[in-house]
Amino acid sequence: MTRADELRDLAQKLLAAHPPAATERTDFLKARFDAGLAWVHYPKGLGGLDAPRSLQAVVDAELAAAGAPDNDPRRIGIGLGMAAPTILKYGSEELKQRFLRPLWVGEEVWCQLFSEPGAGSDLAALGTRAVRDGDAWVVNGQKVWTSSAHAARWAILIARTDPELPKHQGITYFVCDMSDPGVEVRPLRQITGEAEFNEVFLTDVRIPDAHRLGEVGEGWKVAQTTLMNERVSIGGMRLPREGGMIGPLAQTWRERPELRTHDLHQRMLTLWVESEVARLAGERLRQQLVAGQPGPEGSGMKLAFARLNQEISGLEVELRGEEGLLYDDWTMRRPDLVDFTGRDAGYRYLRSKGNSIEGGTSEVLLNIVAERVLGLPSEPRNDKDVAWKDLTR
Description:
Order of helices and strands: HHHHHEEEEEEEEHHHHHH
Low-confidence stretches: none
Shape: globular
Oligomer: single chain
Strand content: 5-15%
Strand order of the largest sheet: 1-4-5-8
Number of strands: 8
C-alpha cells in the first residue's frame, strides 16, 4: 500500500459504507481505525496499513473534504503524540490491541506522569517508587504539572524500581490506571485562572507487570521515545500559513490600522517571517519522520515554538494597548484542552509563559541541541555513576 490513489480509493469506500452525515461520530472513527486509515504508517490491525507516513495527508484531505469527523486531536494530544508511539514501539501485542484503538478514537484520554516536585528539568532524579509484588508493582510517590490528569483514564508513568543503580538506570516505564483508588488528582490553578495542570498522588497503586513497557530498569530509554515525540507534537504540529499565534496578531494588524506604529511594524514583520520559517521547518521535520523515529531536531522546534509564542503574544498585547490588559474570564475551571486561538489576547499572553516549561524546559532543550545537534561538549556531570540513593536531594 504505497500509492496515493489506492488510499483515496480506500477512503472513498469507507465514506460509502459509513456516510459521515448518517453515522454516529464514534462509530465512524472506529470504522476508520479498522480500515487502517487512522495512522497509515502503523501496522495492519493497529490502525494502519504499513504505508509511508507521508501518505497520511492524502487520507486526511479526502475525509475532510467529505465532512468526516476528526478525533478531536487537541483533547487527546498526549495519547496521540506520546503514549501511542511508545506503546507501538515497546508494548506487548496485547497492550497494542487493548489501548491503541480507544486511544485514537478518543474514548480514553491519556496523561503523562513524569515530572515530580524534585525532578522536573532533572527528570532522571525522580523518586516515585515501584516495588515488585508478585505479578504486580506497588507504586508510591507524587507527580506534578500533569496536563489533563482530571480527565484521563490512563497514564504513562515512569518510576524508580532500583535505587541502588545510578539515576538513569533504575527506572521502569508503566501504563497506570488513573481509576485506581490509590490515585488522587488535585488541581493546580495557573496564572490564567484555570487548572489545566494537576498534581497527582500515588498511594499503593497496583500496576500489573503486563502493563510494563520495555524491560525492567530500561524506563529511561523508553521515556526518550515519549519525550522526543512530545517535542515534535508540541513544536512541529502541522499549520497553515498564519496558523497558530501569529494568526490573531496578523488579523488585528490588518483590521486595526489605527494601532500601528513604525516600531510595531518592524517587530510584526520580523515575527511573521520567523513564524513562517518555523512552520516550514516543521514541514521538513515531518518529512524526516517518514524515514524513522524523531531525533533531537524536535527539541529545536519546540524551543522555537515557545520563544515565538511568548514574543508574538507580548506584541499582540502591546499592539492592543489598553484593550490588551483586559481578560475574559478568571473563573476557576478545569479545561480539557488548551485553546490558544479561541481566547483573547490576555489569555494567550499569560498561557504562553508555560510554553518554555512544559514539554521540557528551554534550558534543557538548549543543552540537547548543543550536544546532540551541534556536537558541542557535554556539561560536566558528577552524578551519572552514583547510585540514586546516594545522591544529595
